[in-house]
Amino acid sequence: MGAKDWMLFYASDDVSKVLRASPKLDREATEAFVRRLYPSHDISPVEDGNLHYSNPPEGKVYAGVFPGLSVICTWEAAGDSYTDLPARFVSEAAGRTLYLHAMHSVVDFFSYAIWEPDGTLRRAYSLSPDSGVIADVGTPLPFEEKYLAGDPEFLASLDPDEEYPFRFHPLELAEAALRELFGFNYEGAWEDDDPDLEEVVLAGYTVTPR
Fold this sequence. Notes:
Blueprint: E1 4-11, H1 15-20, H2 27-37, E2 41-50, E3 60-66, E4 69-73, H3 87-91, E5 97-104, E6 109-115, E7 121-128, E8 132-137, H4 145-148, H5 152-157, H6 170-182, E9 201-209
Antiparallel strand pairs: 1-4, 1-5, 2-9, 3-4, 3-9, 5-6, 6-7, 7-8
Pfam families: DUF6928
InterPro entries: DUF6928
């Protein structure tokens, strides 16, 4: 597995439904969205991206405002825990459900969090082999149960002499979260009604602190 992402979804509608419709980017609203999130930065447009590429380097973001959904792929979402996300990103949700999803295949890291429309944290979980479980807040969602109980397929694949700190692979849980929350995977099984991520256009910007 080799996927990496760090992204935030602000949803007032079902995320998978919006993405399957290949929604049209509202550029004016998108620039305003990015400027709200980076009020002390100089914002400069660069080439467009799409949801297939969701791990921009620090200083660059990809974002999109669509009917019922706003998305931003940003290094700010790549922290070890939901607590590393600056408060302004949570405040921006303003009555919408906020989802954070981040994973990094090089270090088997995965983090996700969900905030309710009133700003209450519903669930947060993050982990990596080097750091162990970093955050575990709220009740696990049903899609997590197989993994937290010990994924039989993963356990069967382990070398008996191999020491691994978890009973499942963090990236497998990360992909399960993508499927459950957003209706797609970066790696794994393709389903007939999956959205075409390259058709979900995101506007690119550099964000430079003043």
